[in-house]
Design goal:
This is Aminopeptidase. Its cofactor is Zn(2+). It comes from Pangasianodon hypophthalmus. Pfam families: ERAP1_C (PF11838), Peptidase_M1 (PF01433), Peptidase_M1_N (PF17900). One of its GO terms (biological process) is peptide catabolic process. With 753 residues, the chain is α+β, with helices and mostly antiparallel strands. It has five domains: 66 residues, tricorn interacting facor f3 domain (Immunoglobulin-like, Sandwich); 104 residues, Neutral Protease Domain 2 (Neutral Protease, domain 2, Orthogonal Bundle), CATH 1.10.390.10; 143 residues, Neutral Protease Domain 2 (Neutral Protease, domain 2); 111 residues, Sandwich (Immunoglobulin-like), CATH 2.60.40; 207 residues, Zincin-like fold, CATH 1.25.50.20. Helix content is 51%, strand content 13%. It has 28 helices and 21 strands. The strands form seven sheets. A five-stranded mixed beta sheet has the order 8-9-10-12-11. Strands 19-16-15-21 form a four-stranded mixed beta sheet. The longest helix has 33 residues. It is globular. The chain starts with 13 loop residues before the first strand and ends with a helix.
């Protein structure tokens, strides 16, 4: 903004703005507010004067001059909503979906927050290139095309879901961010955490059958705990001393951990008090700025009205001002009957990493933890009780604990922490999953899978326990635990996919998957079915299981995928259901000849659907032909064929390919200066690239190469991303040294009988 206006460009300095734009009359212009008056000059130039804005932060002031077309609709309260995009996109109806859900969302947020949308209009602008997915300028939100245009004939369900969440996120910001803005960037997590949390609440309102509130566990909670379990993590609220530090706070810790903490708080408070607290926060501070204590005060007051005297500030400061999260260990007391011992400690994937980080060395972190605890056995589970844990170790009397009674903590995974148990309790829980899994809620089944894999990875549990827990999956009919297992297995797969004994691991995983795979079969497109029906009615579990079967080498899955690709090539009619195109394309490219790669490359050039182009591009990275992959990398970086966001995805996906990890790693180092100058300023993109290319390096040689590269090349704004990368690769190498042999030993024993 400083490049366009002389302003104090800091969020606390709010002002009103009157924008006037003069441009060629063949174009149209938009800004935060509607046009107040227009005049056409004799020279053919048009002058548009826009209404004065309410008080707002400077970084939300925006305007655009374009030759786009538009579609519009109106809410029942009279707010005009328009979507601007390339004329062919508008004509094909690609913007209709986003326009439709935006109308529903404005009504949803007004009802939820009990605060009216304060502007007379909301414009959505779809642009071919943008450094971020979207930007929530007040009354004029800007989206990169991939995050707002939907072609229902070829877009997969996952593409639709991703796009929906971006729109839900940006509309939420019209209140939390635009109307009420953090005083300074150290509390940016408040607006981003809320918007990320509401991605799931708002999407659940739009499409209840999607089970988005459950998806939060795998897509937000489990994902951010991977990042936040590292010594190079940071508190979500931290002081910023330099301008360069501001970019650093726009990371997944701010977004996803912020969302997870808000979800934990909402569950502790209860829905009524939580909504009342948000309403009070928005009404008290509308058109103004806030710090986190303002939010805590609003929530504490909402609880006081219900007769509950909890200092939200006291509880939440521990979670926001300290990095990381605890692992809570629950075990039966050795001498006292019906009593449990509960302890907490800072969870780290690599405990030795503390030595290298001054902020953690000799430091003991503690949290006030809302722990929901239940007891169960084969046939039933007791009702949960809430216990607040604030000391290192505490003892509690609970219900009757028999020899076969298991304990289960963090019910439905509402808390932001991991739970560990003694080995006897783990065995009872795994036995329960094998015999009668539905006694335990679907959220906790997914949580148990994620916790077991992470606790074993960090050395808290034996390495065979994750392999034992996935044996129950053939009895699992819900998507969420399969999704949790799939994500955890993916991490392990990338750690092992270049080892000599890899087939021991892949065969073991296939054994657990195959029963469900053959039972579910493949989605079919019946004659007369539209792609739309096939896309949205395809079972997500079916897709997840097909993906696992093809990834780990099931021969039937491979034949099926190759046959679908061959049929497409011979008929030039794509009858592959959109929901599984990514799996089918990738499998075809990896197993079939060079002609298939060339066919997909040609289709990438000719396709006009944004979502289809993305799937094709990622499929091209699945080849084991390094010549073709090198050609793809160069074409992505050196031409306008590939949008900026996708250039990074191409390099990352090549790095995920075990045949080409070395290629992506070498290419990244050779092209670093060019990549850094191009993406260094873009939020997320640079750190996404650095972590994506390095996270699966796991040999001593690769670790040495990374250290050398950091010393000679990497500095400046990317320093924290490289520190994180170094910690990840060190932990990968260490896992191989400490656990690989015993891991494969157990697999050998298992395969022998």
């Amino acid at each position: 903004m400083r490049g366009k206006l002389s302003v104090f460009d800091e969020p606390v300095y709010k002002a009103t703005f009157s924008v006037t734009l003069r441009h060629d009359a063949s174009y149209q212009s938009v800004s935060n507010m509607p046009i107040e008056s227009s005049s056409l000059d004799e020279d053919g130039w048009l002058t548009n004067r826009f209404s004065r804005t309410p008080r707002m932060s400077t970084y939300y002031v925006s305007w655009a001059v374009c030759d786009f077309s538009s579609r519009e609709t109106m809410t029942h309260s009279g707010v005009m909503i328009r979507l601007f995009a390339r004329p062919d996109a508008i004509q094909s109806g690609s913007g209709d979906y986003a326009l439709h859900i935006t109308k529903s969302l404005l009504n949803f947020y007004q009802d939820y927050f009990r605060v009216t949308y304060p502007l007379p209009k909301l414009d959505l602008l779809a642009v071919p290139k943008h450094p971020y997915a979207a930007m929530e300028n007040w009354g004029l939100s800007v989206f990169v095309e991939q995050k707002i245009l939907l072609d229902p004939e070829v877009s997969s369900f996952s593409y639709q879901m991703d796009l929906t969440m971006v729109v839900v996120h940006e509309i939420c910001h019209q209140w939390l961010g635009d109307l009420v803005t953090p005083v300074w960037w150290d509390d940016v997590w408040i607006k981003e955490g809320f918007a990320h949390y509401f991605e799931y609440v708002g999407s659940d309102f739009l499409f209840p059958k999607w089970n988005m509130k459950q998806r939060f566990l795998t897509d937000v909670l489990h994902e951010v705990m991977l990042l936040d379990g590292m010594a190079t993590s940071h508190p979500i609220s931290e002081e910023l001393f330099q301008v360069a530090d501001i970019h650093r706070v726009f990371d997944w810790i701010s977004y996803k951990k912020g969302a997870a903490l808000i979800r934990m708080l909402a569950n502790v408070m209860g829905q009524t008090a939580f909504q009342r607290g948000i309403n009070d926060y928005l009404v008290t501070h509308e058109y103004g700025n806030t710090a986190r204590d303002d939010l805590w005060n609003s929530f504490s007051q909402a609880l006081q009205r219900e007769g509950k005297d909890i200092s939200i500030k006291e509880v939440m400061d521990g979670w926001t001002l300290q990095m990381g999260y605890p692992v809570v260990t629950i075990s039966k007391h050795e001498s006292l009957e019906n009593t449990v011992t509960i302890s907490q400690e800072h969870f780290l994937y690599d405990k030795d990493a503390k030595i290298h980080h001054r902020q953690l060395f000799n430091k003991s972190l503690q949290w006030q933890i809302p722990l929901n605890l239940a007891l169960g056995n084969f046939s039933h589970m007791s009702s949960e009780s809430l216990i607040w844990i604030s000391n290192k170790t505490e003892t509690y009397r609970v219900g009757r604990i028999g020899e076969e009674t298991w304990l289960l903590g963090n019910i439905n995974q509402t808390g932001y922490f991991r739970v560990n148990y003694d080995l006897h309790n783990w065995r009872l829980l795994i036995q329960q999953l094998m015999l009668n899994p539905t006694i335990i809620s679907v959220g906790n089944r997914a949580g148990l899978v994620d916790d077991v894999f992470s606790l074993a990875r960090a050395g808290y549990l034996p390495q065979n326990l994750p392999l034992q827990i996935i044996c129950y999956l053939s009895k699992e009919d819900d998507f969420l635990p399969w999704h949790a297992a799939s994500r955890a297995l993916y991490q392990l797969d990338k750690l092992l996919d270049r080892t000599e004994d890899y087939s021991l691991f892949s065969s073991y995983v296939l054994k657990q998957v195959e029963l469900k795979y053959h039972k579910l079969d493949w989605p079919r497109l019946k004659a007369g079915d539209s792609f739309k029906q096939a896309t949205y009615h395809t079972n997500e579990l079916q897709r997840e299981v097909i993906m696992l079967a093809c990834s780990f080498g099931n021969k039937h899955c491979h034949r099926q995928a190759m046959s679908l690709v061959s049929e497409w090539i011979s008929s030039n009619k794509n009858r592959i259901p959109p929901s599984i195109r990514d799996v089918v394309y990738c499998t075809g490219v990896s197993l079939m000849d060079e002609d298939v790669w060339e066919f997909m490359w040609m289709k990438f050039h000719s396709s006009t659907a944004v979502s289809e182009k993305k799937v094709l591009l990622e499929a091209l990275t699945c080849s084991d032909n390094t010549f073709l992959l090198h050609r793809l990398l160069n074409a992505s970086l050196n031409s306008d064929l590939v949008p900026d966001q996708d250039v990074i995805d191409v390099i990352i996906h090549v790095g995920r390919n075990p045949h080409a990890r070395h290629l992506a790693w070498r290419y990244f180092r050779e092209k670093w200066d060019e990549l850094n100058s191009r993406f260094g300023e873009a939020l997320f993109l640079n750190s996404k690239l650095i972590s994506g290319v390095t996270e699966f390096l796991n040999t001593q040689r690769e670790l040495d190469e990374l250290k050398d590269f950091i010393q000679t090349s990497a500095a400046g704004g990317s320093a924290s991303a490289f520190s994180r990368a170094l910690e990840v690769v060190q932990a990968n190498v260490k896992w191989h040294e400490l656990y690989r042999e015993s891991f494969f030993q157990w697999l050998r024993k298992s395969s022998d009988g």
